[in-house]
Design a protein that fits this description.
Length: about 220
């Protein structure tokens, strides 16, 4: 869908912290070149997600108008805020969330919609949705304390077969650190997504700059 509408190379997924801390981390990473910020918080009520996503989106747009802001899980919050004109661009859906098709019908053709995968079977299933899906997450790269997906770690060697199979761009996720970026980029993934690498950093802008630079180096190898 609509090539070049978004830059998946450096993909921030928000993590632990106060609203102000999450907003600061997201906007600093966007300033550093993060092409996507996904607002994720678990558990969170729709009302609290509405507040958090609005604040993140407005601050990110101030510093990086090209950075796309997505909402995790909460399709109707995203739909409502997008209709109100907030700079929010789509959703990331899990296997247990509403269907990609329902999200596409509600959000329209311009929205960015991502889906969680992480095995060859889930990637094959996502291929059936490639006309309404923009990208897939594939994890965990390594086991991570941030989320237990129940799926086995993919590892570096596991990404080339997923990339080969997938009809849409792949974002690697799960214990990814800046030191992993060059090698992951060389596997052919379109980007890397990180939670703690940003939420636990005292300079998320620098982390994003490092990720983008190393992602480009990996593409050359
Ligand atoms: C890019 C990306 N990949 C995977 C996920 C999955 O995380 P989470 O939302 O906790 O789990 P599900 O909702 O998919 O079950 C993600 N958020 N982003
Ligand atoms: C949100 C998420 N999804 C995963 C998956 O495997 O689908 S792993 C993950 C957590 C990633 O956090 P960190 O960068 O702190 O390891
Ligand atoms: Mg989710």
């Amino acid at each position: 869908m609509f090539e070049n509408r978004f830059d998946l190379r450096c993909y921030v997924v928000t993590g632990a912290g106060s609203v102000d801390e999450v907003v600061h981390t997201a906007s600093a990473a966007a300033r550093g070149g993060a092409g996507v910020v996904q607002v994720r918080s678990k558990p969170i009520s729709p009302e609290a997600m509405r507040e958090l996503a609005s604040k993140v989106a407005l601050e990110v747009a101030r510093y990086s108008p090209t950075t796309r802001v997505l909402i995790d899980d909460h399709l109707h919050v995203a739909s409502s805020l997008m209709r109100e004109g907030l700079p929010i661009h789509g959703v990331h859906l899990g296997q247990d969330d509403v269907s990609v098709l329902e999200a596409r019908e509600l959000l329209g053709p311009e929205a960015i919609i991502g889906l969680t995968t992480g095995t060859l079977e889930l990637v094959a299933a996502a291929n059936e949705l490639s006309d309404v899906l923009d990208y897939i997450g594939a994890g965990p790269f390594r086991k991570t304390p941030t989320k237990d997906s129940g799926r086995p770690p993919i590892g570096l060697a596991g990404y080339p077969p997923l990339v080969e199979l997938s009809k849409v761009p792949i974002v690697a996720i799960g214990d990814v650190t800046p030191a992993d970026v060059r090698a992951l980029s060389a596997t052919g993934v379109a980007g890397v997504a990180m939670v703690r690498a940003f939420s636990e950093s005292d300079d998320p802008q620098q982390v994003a700059e490092n990720v983008v630079a190393n992602f480009e180096l990996g593409r050359l190898s």
